[in-house]
Each structure stands twice: as structure tokens, then as C-alpha cells.
Amino acid sequence: MQCVDCNRLHGRLREICRGESDLPDDKRQTYIARWLKSGMLQETDCSDGLVSIETPVDGGRRKKRRTGGRRQRHISPNARRKGKGGGGCCKRAVTFAKTMAAWAADGLKIASATEQAERRQICETCPLNSEGWCSACGCHINEKIKLRVSFCPTAKWFVGQPPRAVDGPRHLMMHIMPVTKNGMWQWNVEQLLQRIDIFDGRRAVAIVTPQPGCKYTLDTVAAVQNAFRDHRIDEWIVARNNPRLREGATWPQLLTAVSREPGVTFACHAMGVTHNMQHLKLPWTEIQWMTCLDDWTSVERALSQYSMAGPFKRYGHFAVGNNNRWHYSGTFYWFRNDDVFRSGKDWHTMDKRFFASESWPARLFRPEETACLFCDDTKDLYKQHVWDGRVYEEFEQWKAARILS
Q: End-to-end alpha-carbon separation of the chain, Å?
């Protein structure tokens, strides 16, 4: 019998996993299957305190696959050299062609000796280094690190830019719409509290209250404040909910709260509060928390070369004036305070649309001035095939490169 450790989850999710909710057991097992598929849970041998699995990962239906008479084998993440699994030779060929095109467009520039040495040091200790080949992109590492335009596929190093010191404290700004009963805002707060010690600077949290005719029931301001327990919050901002602006309703006030501070700021919100637990926004949000806060070394390296950094960078949106047509899909991102507040840029102005906080970075910076921490050039994350075809695989690579589970 195989089991799962429900302690990896939090709040309402943990209750569902343990069978402590009022959901029927068949639905609970379906949720567990989805969490296993997304990587939020992993199968393990049974012991005290673990929950047994009854439903297969595919949601209850085991389909026989036609294998052409050959037995299919498991492909390990490191078995990509010399065409072993993972599309080795083909993947290397595609990556090589793209890299050569980018290198040509960059004027065939070579990275500095210092930058090459830093890249080599990172790659030599990376778990995805398979005898000198990168298991994530298929490139030969000694050649890849020489090109200025190269970058790590798991965002441990980036396209070469003149480095700057990342001085000063790390600040937090967070927007919360505390929708009652689905447990998502509480789950987001718990995700933050697990990592809140990273913020040694100013912490500002905005809470919205119901507007007239609000279709959602919201928990009280006191309930949200109590959820932070004894953790320090320097400024509480309370504002009326604005469905037209969403997070944009409090973004200017949150920005003002950190505008006089040196250092860097992490901007986020309680995501998925209007959706149920089985929605794609759950793994979407978890990936953002992890990629933004669980590897400060990579974030710091990104901010030493770029003005902003965040996961799920998407290009082509939004078609509004004074916008460079890119955004971080999900609105989780870091930025350098000096580049935002002391560069003469108009950081006060925001689009008067529901995507205001999401489009705000592109009002200030061109895409080449910002870094992506995970899944660059992402597509529509509301589509399941985008997750199945790319995101889940890249997330496993991102975790493996950092020895995270």
C-alpha cells in the first residue's frame, strides 16, 4: 500500500487530505490524485500519520497504453545525454538552434571571464549536471556558459548584464481579499508566514472590505489580522473592494508604504480567493510562492542584473497606452526600490482596469530590463494543456536543481 503525507499541505487542503472535511471520500481521493499529479504530494511507504491512497493518479481510470510491443521504461531527469530519454538528441538540437540564433542577434558577444566563472561554479554543483550536460535544456555546459546571451533554464543564472549590489532590506507588500469559506486567503497567508522571516524590512498588508452589492461574503479585517498571529506587520491598509481594479485598488497605497525605503520589495496578493480548491490557481499560486521566496540566492542574482524579477513572464499583453506589452502572469514579483522610486519613473500611475497591478511593471520597464524566475514566455495558464505540456515538467526541473521536494 502507498500513502501520502498530508502535512505537506496547509489549512483547508490539509483537512481535505486527511479526511477531516465534509467532502465525500471519492472526491477527497480525486483531489489527492490531482495533487499527486501536480507534484504537491508524493507517494511514499506507509507509516504512522500517513494517509493511504485508494485512487490512481490518473483520477481513477487506468488506461492501457499501446507500446508497439516494447516495454516502456521510466525516464529519469538525468538520463538526457546521448539521446537517453527526455528527447535528448532532438532537444539538444532545438536548444542549439535557438541559442545560436539568439547569440547571432546579440552580436556574437562572449560573457566576461568573471561571469563565466560564476556560471561554471553554479553548474558544477547543480544536481541537473549530468557528466557535463544540462539535464534541463540538453546543452553542453562548458560551451553554454561562454555565450553572453545564454541563461539557465531553471533560473539560477541569467543573460549577462552589468551586476549591481542588492543592498538594503527586503520589504513586503500584499493585497488580501478575504473571501469567506473557501479557505484560499488563509492558505495564502500560511504560505507567506512559512517564509516571512525573509522580510527584514517594512511589511505592508492591504485588506479590502465589501463594496455595496458585493457578490462575495468577506471575512472581517480583524479575522485577517488575527491570521498573522504575532508576526510583525508595520502597516495595515484597509480599503473598499473595487471589482473594476481588484488588487489595483490598494496597489498605490502599498507602493507608497515602501517608496521611501532602500532595498528591494516583494509584491504579491492572496491569489485564487474566488475559486475552489480544485482550480488551476492552486498549483499556480504555490509555484509563485516557491519560486519567489524559496531560493533567495537566485532572486538576488536576478535583481543584481535586472530591475524586476518574477515567475510566469508573458509577452504581448496588455494593449493599453504607455505599456511595453509584457507582464508577470499572476502578479507575484520582486523589484529594486531604487529603479522604481528614484529613477524619475511615473510609478504612481496605473491602468484603470482589472489587470492594473499586473500591467503596472510594463509601464515602467521594457521586457529586457526584467528577469523571469520560472517559465519564461509562458502561455495562457488557465488552459490545462499548458500545464500538462510544459509547466509541470519545468517545475520538477526547477525543484530538482535546488534539491527541493
A: 21
Distance CA 152, CA 159 (A): 8
Cβ-based burial of 138 (10 A; exposed 0-12, middle 13-18, buried ≥19) = buried
b/e string for 320-330 if b means 16 or more Cβ within 10 A? Answer: eeebbebbbbb
Instruction: Tell me the CB-side half-sphere exposure of residue 372, using CA atoms within 13 A.
Output: 22
* CB neighbours of residue 167 within 10 Å: 10
Q: Over the stretch 321-340, which tens digit does the pLDDT of each residue have? A: 788 899 999 999 999 999 99
Phi, psi (5° rounding) for residue 76?
-80, 155
CB 190 within 8 A of CB 232: no
> What pLDDT, on the 0 to 100 scale, is given for residue 163?
86
Angle between helices 356-364 and 251-258 (to 10 degrees): 50
Q: Are 159 and 148 in contact (CB under 8 A)?
A: yes
Closest to 235 in 3D by CA, of 169, 172, 170: 172
Q: What is the pLDDT of residues 124-159, one digit of tens each?
A: 889 888 888 898 888 888 888 888 888 898 989 988
SS3 state of residue 92: helix
* DSSP-based three-state secondary structure for 134: strand
Question: DSSP secondary-structure letter at 147?
Answer: B
Domain ranges of the chain: 2-52, 81-144, 170-400
Q: Kindly report whether the peptide bond that precedes residue 151 is cis, defined as omega within 30 degrees of 0.
A: no
Extract the C-alpha cell encoding 98. 535557438
Task: Collect all residues with Cβ–Cβ distance below 8 Å to 344 and sequence separation of at least 6.
Answer: none
* Residue 396, burial from CB neighbour count under 10 angstroms (0-12, 13-18, 19+): middle
pTM: 0.75
Instruction: Quote the cell numbers at residue 380.
Output: 495562457
pLDDT tier, 306 (very low <50, low <70, confident <90, very high otherwise): very high
The values of phi and psi at residue 97, to 5°, are -65, -45
What torsion do the CA atoms of 289, 292, 293, 298 make, to the nearest 10 degrees? 150
**Domain 170-400 bears CATH identifier 1.10.490:** no
